[in-house]
Automatic annotation (TrEMBL):
Top-rank taxon: Bacteria
Keywords from the named record: DNA-binding, Transcription, Transcription regulation
Species of origin: Marinococcus halophilus
Any matching Pfam family: GntR
Protein name according to UniProt: GntR family transcriptional regulator
Length: 122
């Protein structure tokens, strides 16, 4: 686990994204127990409510689920849901801006695609 609390995002959001990253890169797999709220509080040295807010959002998004008296677990299909969510966010945050700037520069679709292909090779 690692966090950058100098980031402009709220701490609960950063913790949530750290858990998502662990699912995305396979450190946390489907049906695997996730770190407890107590472990997260101890690791990040933040308030319990801050951690709970991030974890509860993951529960609402069906990324994690609670087993009463046992802990939090990664839901089946969580990684696929995260991929779809992040692809959508990627399009909205980066691609839309990329296309907007390309239009300002009067770049053709072909020029933009070629530029992307070149960058993907690196």
């Amino acid at each position: 686990m690692d966090a950058d609390f100098h980031n402009k995002k709220p701490i609960f959001q950063q913790i949530k994204e750290q858990i998502e990253d662990q699912i995305m890169d396979g450190r946390l797999r489907e049906e695997m127990q996730a770190p407890s709220t107590t472990q997260l509080v101890s690791f990040y040295k933040v308030n319990h409510l801050t951690v709970a807010k991030g974890v509860n959002e993951l529960v609402e998004e069906e990324i994690l689920y609670k087993k009463r008296g046992v802990g939090m677990f990664v839901t089946s299909g969580a990684k696929e849901r995260l991929i779809k969510k992040r692809q959508k966010a990627f399009g909205e945050e980066y691609i839309d801006e990329l296309v907007k700037e390309a239009r300002k520069l009067r770049m053709s679709e072909e020029e933009l695609v070629n530029m992307l292909r070149e960058r993907m090779k690196k």
